[in-house]
Amino acid sequence: PGGIERSHVHLREFEAPMSGALYCTGYTEELNEFYELDKEIIVYRCKSELLDKVEFYLSHPVEAERIRVAGYERALKCHTYQKRYEDLFSKINLR
Questions:
Q1: Would you say 10 and 34 are in contact if contact means Cβ atoms under 8 Å apart?
Q2: In terms of C-beta distances under 8 Å and separation of at least 24 residues, what long-range contacts does 66-70 make, across chains too?
Q3: β-strand 42-44 against 24-26: which pairing, if any?
Q4: Residues 11-60: tens digit of each pLDDT
Q5: How far apart are the first and last CA of the chain?
Q6: Global pTM?
Q7: Residue 38 — left, alpha, or beta (φ > 0 → left; ψ -120 to 50 → alpha)?
């Protein structure tokens, strides 16, 4: 209580795009380290922005599909368990 609340990424940030879903989530600064926001995953900062983006992508399926595919490709390229472990081991010199 009274401490600083800190947002962080969750496993779903990788699982949803990896499964081929069009992923929409609340904004956290840390997501910038893993995805190009609103190009590979959709983010929102408040309820009204969420509603606006959902309405937009429901009425623009081609754009939604482009983001879905880009998120899937990024997940395959950078966020598999194998890739994440390779990056971790490299950082701690265990390669």
A1: no
A2: 67/22, 67/38, 67/39, 67/40, 67/41, 67/42, 68/20, 68/21, 68/22, 68/23, 70/36, 70/39, 70/40
A3: parallel
A4: 999 999 999 999 999 999 999 999 999 999 999 999 999 999 999 999 99
A5: 41
A6: 0.82
A7: left
